[in-house]
Amino acid sequence: MKIAIIQFGGTNCDMDVQHVLTDVVGVDAETVWYKEENLTGFDGVVVPGGFSYGDYLRAGAIAARTPIMDSIKKIAAEGKPVLGICNGFQVLTEARVLEGALTTNEYPKFRCHWTNIRVETTDTPFTSKFRKGEVIRMPIAHMEGKFFAEEPTLAELDENEQVVFRYVDEKGRATDKANPNGSLENIAGIVNTSRNILGLMPHPERASESILGSADGRKVFESMADYITENF
Amino acid sequence: MQYQATVTIKQKAGMLDPEGTTAKKALGHLGYAVESIKTAKLYEIVLEAKSAEVAEQKVDEMCQKLIANPIVQNYTIELKELN
């Protein structure tokens, strides 16, 4: 098994993801510069966090239009898992492989702190190791993390159980106070209809070892690795 | 022919515009009563095209493909012929 970690100009969480995949989870992972147009031989993709192209135009907009996106779409079409974290989530929505858009936080400043997240579905390649309704801890670090979609899209996301994570309080309630950026319906992460592309704003790689304050995020990568082992 | 397209990108109604809100508040402190302020981003694009129609069509494509995100933004294009 080999997982590709995509690097754009401005990506800065690539090495953290590689550390977690190789040293913590124990799978083969390799960073891939965005000019590489061929992802043959890879069984999964992570689009990590950062500030691709300085977030000019809109966060993730330029990265979403680079040729490597076609290879990522091809991998996704084969049913292989694609995980977008933070800027990676912004890239995947800008590339229209995920619904909606990520816009400026409701309180318009950069927010960087721990959040509580509720696992809404375990029926994805990224959440099989969790329990449904489990409240986990992961940090956020973003300025444009407010999830927005028009009403019909939001209803579809709910109906198809595409909302994977929601911001909640310690007791698991999706309150306004627990919502760090004003995301509609407290949405922190969604999957596509085929369920093999996940985008989330919190950083699982920064919560994959207990020395960092939480190891909950590790299960995202472990679930992904299990899924690849079982299916490819 | 050479054309200059002025593309104006605005957040859709209901989307956050922190710069506009802050400017409105600051103007209030200076004694100006302002009903609302909306900010926008402006791109001036100079391009060669056979006709104004073709130029506008190309710029519209650029907006759809990269410059605007139609989920959260609206855009307008104004075209003028250069030289």
From TrEMBL, chain A:
Any Gene Ontology CC annotation: cytoplasm
Transmembrane domains' residue ranges: none
Reaction equation(s) it catalyzes: L-glutamine + H2O = L-glutamate + NH4(+); N(2)-formyl-N(1)-(5-phospho-beta-D-ribosyl)glycinamide + L-glutamine + ATP + H2O = 2-formamido-N(1)-(5-O-phospho-beta-D-ribosyl)acetamidine + L-glutamate + ADP + phosphate + H(+)
EC number of this enzyme: 6.3.5.3, 3.5.1.2
Primary location group: cytoplasm
Pathway terms, separated by semicolons: Purine metabolism; IMP biosynthesis via de novo pathway; 5-amino-1-(5-phospho-D-ribosyl)imidazole from N(2)-formyl-N(1)-(5-phospho-D-ribosyl)glycinamide: step 1/2
Source species, domain of life: Archaea
Pfam families linked: GATase_5
A GO term for molecular function: transferase activity
Keyword line: ATP-binding, Cytoplasm, Glutamine amidotransferase, Hydrolase, Ligase, Nucleotide-binding, Purine biosynthesis, Transferase
PANTHER family: PHOSPHORIBOSYLFORMYLGLYCINAMIDINE SYNTHASE SUBUNIT PURQ
Subunit structure: Part of the FGAM synthase complex composed of 1 PurL, 1 PurQ and 2 PurS subunits.
Protein purpose: Part of the phosphoribosylformylglycinamidine synthase complex involved in the purines biosynthetic pathway. Catalyzes the ATP-dependent conversion of formylglycinamide ribonucleotide (FGAR) and glutamine to yield formylglycinamidine ribonucleotide (FGAM) and glutamate. The FGAM synthase complex is composed of three subunits. PurQ produces an ammonia molecule by converting glutamine to glutamate. PurL transfers the ammonia molecule to FGAR to form FGAM in an ATP-dependent manner.
Protein name: Phosphoribosylformylglycinamidine synthase subunit PurQ
Organism of origin: Methanosarcina lacustris Z-7289
From TrEMBL, chain B:
CC terms in the record's Gene Ontology section: cytoplasm
Protein name: Phosphoribosylformylglycinamidine synthase subunit PurS
Catalytic activity annotation: N(2)-formyl-N(1)-(5-phospho-beta-D-ribosyl)glycinamide + L-glutamine + ATP + H2O = 2-formamido-N(1)-(5-O-phospho-beta-D-ribosyl)acetamidine + L-glutamate + ADP + phosphate + H(+)
Cited InterPro entries: PurS, PurS-like_sf
Chain's gene name: purS
EC category name: ligase
GO molecular function: ATP binding; phosphoribosylformylglycinamidine synthase activity
NCBIfam families documented for this protein: phosphoribosylformylglycinamidine synthase subunit PurS (TIGR00302), PRK05974.1 (NF004630)
Keywords from the named record: ATP-binding, Cytoplasm, Ligase, Nucleotide-binding, Purine biosynthesis
Function in brief: Part of the phosphoribosylformylglycinamidine synthase complex involved in the purines biosynthetic pathway. Catalyzes the ATP-dependent conversion of formylglycinamide ribonucleotide (FGAR) and glutamine to yield formylglycinamidine ribonucleotide (FGAM) and glutamate. The FGAM synthase complex is composed of three subunits. PurQ produces an ammonia molecule by converting glutamine to glutamate. PurL transfers the ammonia molecule to FGAR to form FGAM in an ATP-dependent manner.
Organism: Methanosarcina lacustris Z-7289
Subunit: Part of the FGAM synthase complex composed of 1 PurL, 1 PurQ and 2 PurS subunits.
Annotated GO biological process: 'de novo' IMP biosynthetic process
Superkingdom of origin: Archaea
